[in-house]
Amino acid sequence: MTGSAKGMKRRTKTSPSQTPLVRLRDVRKVYDTGKVRIDALQGISLDILPGEMVMVMGPSGCGKTTLLNCCSGLDEITSGLVEVEGVDITTMQDNARTDYRARHMGFIFQFYNLLPVLTAVENVELPLLVAGARPAEARQRALEMLDQVGLRNWQSHLPAELSGGQRQRVTIARALVNSPKIVWADEPTGDLDTATGTDIMDLMCRLNRDQGQTFVVVTHDPEVGARGGRMVTMRDGAIAHDVLLKPKDPRHAR
Predict the structure, then answer these.
(1) CA–CA separation, 198 vs 216, rounded Å?
(2) pLDDT tens for residues 189-201?
(3) What is the separation, in whole angstroms, between the first and last Cα of the chain?
(4) Residue 240, class by beta-carbon neighbours within 10 Å (0-12 exposed, 13-18 middle, 19+ buried)?
(5) Which of 33, 158, 167, 203 is 20 to 30 A from 254 (CA-CA)?
(6) What is the pTM of this model?
(7) Which pLDDT tens digit goes with each residue over 78-128?
(8) Side by side, which strands form the sheet with 79-84?
(9) Positive or negative, the Cα torsion across 120, 204, 129, 141?
């Protein structure tokens, strides 16, 4: 791959001692209605290492969200290979893939996807209950996660009683409650004002730096993209550039 930018360096090959957490090889995704054919992903090969914070950027319609959905198994690929922790998720049956996502992945969306009739703590504990955890254990873990995102005192509030930033913090707590290997975030600051979006990115960067949480973040915002440790830029369903970022602030360095 080609491309360079000030403050960046080329992505180096994976060291033999670094086993990729996510591995894509020649991944293609075609949407074909019979009348219209869209080559959404055109032979993507990509490794994501444990502890990375990868920012996926590019213009609208370039395939960013499609890439995230195919990496996480939310969408089926047309051809190629997608491995997570050495497991080929593309060969799994739907139920097995859903169970794998619930146990090993977390998701953060632009519009929160919180259940409006559940309180903050009930929304956070829900993935654990679905996975079969005991109610008391799920509640305790949910409260611990709300502590981490600074919302312990808001545990009994419904989503409608929370600000946008607070709702996104609940979403982050829910994404992390099952101790996922990787968190997929699709425009996590897209529905927030600049100051609140910065707070959310501060939180995600802290979790990445202090806990080694792996994130893959889709964003159109260059300021958000610059907060990660690596930037993957897409054009027309392909990776145009893949570069490591030099942290601009020592607080964001590893």
Answers:
(1) 17
(2) 988 899 999 999 9
(3) 25
(4) middle
(5) 167
(6) 0.86
(7) 999 999 999 999 999 999 998 899 889 999 988 878 999 999 999 999 999
(8) 37-48, 22-32, 79-84, 87-88
(9) negative
